[in-house]
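hiii, so i know i said id send this last week but things got crazy w the move. better late than never?? heres the sequnce for the chain we talked about at the cafe, plus the structure i predicted for it. fair warning i was half asleep when i ran it
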Amino acid sequence: MAEKKFSKIITPILLLAAISVLSFFMNKYRFSARHFVFPAALFILPILFDRTFRPKKIFLPSKEGLKLFLWVTLATLVFYPPLFFAYNLGFMHRALADSTSKELLNAVTKGLIAIAVAAIPEEFFFRGYIQEHVFSAFDKKILKIVSLKNLFTSLLFGLVHALAFLDITRAATFFPSLLFGLFTEKSKGRIFYSISYHVVSNILAFILWTFIK
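okay and structure toks below
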């Protein structure tokens, strides 16, 4: 029994370490296939090495999470763009750029590509595996909103992004990660809406950056 408990703890730790090291070295040395290898690792490693993780119906939508997803997505589309421009133009002293239709199309294309290389594999690993499987026992809520398992997962999410892009500012993905985690919790462990919001966030960010130089 003790051996099983130890295995349940050590396996996720080793997988997280492997993901972190892989993301760091692949980006440090600009490995050409990193955009394919890393997403594949997020899928394969937990299924291959953690036999206690066998997700079912994880990608299906649920009516429980739909209302929250719609309200948060609407709020993001309304409030995030002005905050984005206020920060970049006012605080960072950047300038507006004349975005062309080609640049906008490229931004949307990047966002759609990111579905396969980022949104789906990241939500599968971090929300489906780490949050809802590894940290499943830590469901106590903080301020009646954020659970400990969501908080712990989001901290790891931000850390891995900082390593993956070799940029400490990428740790700010901690904040949208809290929303991804909340969607998953509301959906009773399913990641359909966390993936969907991940996609919306990526496409919106790519589009907004075309207007900044």
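btw The mean pLDDT is 90. thought thatd interest u
miss u guys!!
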